[in-house]
């Protein structure tokens, strides 16, 4: 049987409606992440919370020591769960995430959180590159509208544009209900 870990990426207060950098559908994504968290805890899977902190008091969001940089209450870490701080989109870069997963014998990672087009994409790709079997829970992830070359791309299209290549080459992309049904 595969050793699994749930990796909750940047489900932090600044990404919610009253935060400094609101992400589309973040409340829904967090509610689904909370369901995944409850399931992982019940199954005895390793749970790792990743939190992003910008290294400057002038950062637009995730300022060090701020309420916005704290993990959202809906997925608050239990005392025995790992919390890894990062400063880059890739949750493995400059952190001990890989070492923690390998030390626990983890072969499969389930990834959720925000933002789809940054930290979820970078983390899922890195996990696959390091040899982990990756599952991204798409409805437990939130994206943000983006602009490029004079065009604005809606958050749902940004989300789809990231999930499609992840599903094609990096791992499985599922909904919360699909994942819970497959692992219950």
Automatic annotation (TrEMBL):
User: Any idea where the Isochorismatase-like domain is?
Assistant: 5-146
* GO MF, one annotated term: hydrolase activity
Q: Which UniProt keywords apply?
A: Hydrolase
**InterPro entries (UniProt xref):** Isochorismatase-like_dom, Isochorismatase-like_hydrls, Isochorismatase-like_sf
Q: Name one Pfam family in it.
A: Isochorismatase
**Does this entry carry the keyword Hydrolase?**
yes
Query: Protein name, please?
Result: Cysteine hydrolase
Provide the species name: Nitratireductor mangrovi
């Amino acid at each position: 049987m595969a050793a699994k870990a749930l990796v909750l990426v940047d489900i932090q207060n600044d990404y919610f409606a009253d935060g400094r950098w609101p992400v589309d559908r973040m409340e829904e994504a967090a509610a689904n992440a909370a369901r995944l968290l409850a399931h992982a805890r019940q199954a005895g899977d390793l749970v790792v919370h990743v939190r992003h902190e910008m290294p400057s008091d002038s950062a637009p969001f995730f300022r060090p020591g701020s309420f916005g940089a704290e993990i959202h209450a809906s997925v608050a870490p239990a005392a025995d769960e790992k919390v890894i701080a990062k400063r880059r989109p890739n949750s493995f870069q400059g952190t001990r995430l890989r070492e923690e997963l390998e030390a626990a014998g983890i072969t499969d990672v389930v990834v959720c959180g925000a933002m789809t087009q940054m930290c979820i994409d970078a983390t899922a790709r890195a996990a696959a590159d390091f040899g982990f079997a990756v599952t991204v829970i798409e409805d437990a992830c939130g994206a943000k509208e983006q602009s490029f070359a004079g065009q604005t791309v809606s958050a749902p299209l940004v989300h789809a544009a990231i999930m499609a290549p992840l599903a094609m080459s990096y791992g499985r992309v599922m909904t919360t209900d699909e994942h819970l049904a497959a692992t219950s």
